[in-house]
Amino acid sequence: MAREKKLSVSTRLASEPTAQPDYATVAMYFISTPDNQPNGHTVEAHITPLLIKELEKYCQDEVWGACANVAEVSEHFDLHAYFGGSDLPNYAVVYKIYMKNQASVPSIRMAQKEFEAVARQHVDTGVSFLLFSKEALILDVGNNIKFSLDRQPVFADLPGPSHLK
Q1: CA-CA distance, 132 to 155, in Å (whole number)?
Q2: CATH number of the structural domain spanning residue 50
Q3: What does the pLDDT look like over 13-33, one tens digit per residue?
Q4: How many domains does the chain have?
């Protein structure tokens, strides 16, 4: 389980009212700790300021927002064991970084490199990873938004037919 926490990022792009595209390009940064900490509250408090500092330094025109999904451990139920992943790494924090577009990747990678250098005692770089994606609304049960093919992004640059047709 995790709690989402909106983060404040002071970049030039964040101050632009048109900075939020329909299908946002995002970097998802999965952070595991050297001691495989399952609860993210302590590590998140230490590393978020370090990550934000590097994003603000290297990504002024590339990042318009961020949030942290902070892992919470239930003492009543082990989700890892239930889903068959009890021996897999724990990801204490998963950051979602909203990017301008795919051309922002080198700037994000530079911020990642510098962040990992200053946060090395809190981040297991052998297990932590960063991936890039497009956000899309699949469905929202709470708001009664059903699945629709019209809302799904189409990646014209990928080879082969779309799986959505």
Answers
A1: 14
A2: 3.30.70.100
A3: 887 755 455 678 999 999 999
A4: 1
